[in-house]
Write a structure and sequence with these properties.
The chain is mostly helical. The chain has four helices and no strands. It has a domain of 46 residues.
Length: 76
């Protein structure tokens, strides 16, 4: 189990390194959870609604690169 000192080591990383760490952790959780978490019928319905809306008008989508550069303008 990590000690309190270990849990703050991440603060020594740069912001971009911490963002990458969070992304890596999220990816590992998603990979593990993809076999254990079930969506509710309401969630499935909402996802289908959003996919249908996107197919009806794909121009409303914003590329991830644009979102990321807006959120983190000094990180790229």
């Amino acid at each position: 189990m990590p000690t309190p000192a270990d849990t703050t080591d991440y603060l020594k990383l740069s912001v971009s390194e911490r963002i990458q760490l969070v992304e890596d952790i999220w990816d590992s959780i998603a990979a593990e959870a993809s076999t254990t978490i079930e969506l509710s019928q309401e969630q499935k319905t909402e996802l289908q609604r959003r996919v249908t809306a996107h197919h009806a008008d794909p121009s409303t989508a914003v590329p991830w690169e644009q979102v990321r550069s807006t959120l983190f303008p000094n990180q790229l």
